[in-house]
Amino acid sequence: MNMPHAASIEIKSIKNPKGPKHALKQSKLLIKIMGLLILLLGLGFGVKHIYHRLCQCDFFQITSVRINNNRMTSKEQIAALSRVDIHSNLLAINVVQVQELLESHPWIAKADVIRDWPNRLLINLKEKNPVALLNRDTGLFYLDDNGQIIAAANPSQELDFPVITGLENYSFDTKDSAHVSKPLQDVFELLKLANRNNPILPQQNISDIHITEQGELILYLLDRPFPIYLGTEGKISTRYYRLVKVLKDLYKTREFAEVLYIRLDYQKDTILVGKIETGRIHRG
Known about the structure:
Elements: H1 20-55, E1 64-68, H2 75-82, H3 95-103, E2 108-116, E3 120-127, E4 130-136, E5 139-144, E6 149-152, E7 163-165, H4 182-194, E8 206-211, E9 217-221, E10 228-231, H5 236-252, E11 259-267, E12 270-275, E13 279-283
């Protein structure tokens, strides 16, 4: 009886991929990584050491601090607030920190601090823009065109601004200009128009603007402080230019010195000019 031949089976040995050669490669790679880390650490310590040495080097010692665009703040105030002097090291100072310190001042809207290598520092300021003085129970305060109080008025600073009265109890806590009252918005618009230096009614000739409890504006001029009742009706720009027209006629006819008051709110299309001896109605 013939038996089928058993299939021949060939058994081959399989090499272990994680053999000695692979382990050797891993060891070499690990050594390279460790060497690279040691090199980087060494470089880090070296750079840090060099940086600290440069921060103490006389070559970068500040010899000049230049402050630009300061009007309401003094150079002494800015220098003290910045905490930088001629003994500071230009490389060591923290520019961002100096800017934040300067912008904490109530008058400074923005500060740019620039290193001028190797040993000068430039400080460029943008101060807030005052448009009027606000009369409060506690004194006079500078007011910007957003209806926000900047700071208390100082006799050593510029005081040649129109004075706003009648807002002793008005709240100025909000920083949102959208919440500024309509009469105060009219005041700012009026001052903006006057700031265009119209020769008949420039801002320099505005002494006081009083806001009544009803929101009416009463204007007083420097050259003769009689009341000018601006009323509440219509755009403030329309009322301003109507007043300019009346004042122009009064200057032209030399009747300005006789005026006791001007009422733009007399009637819709009528302006009343009260004079010392007789009354006069001016239609505008």
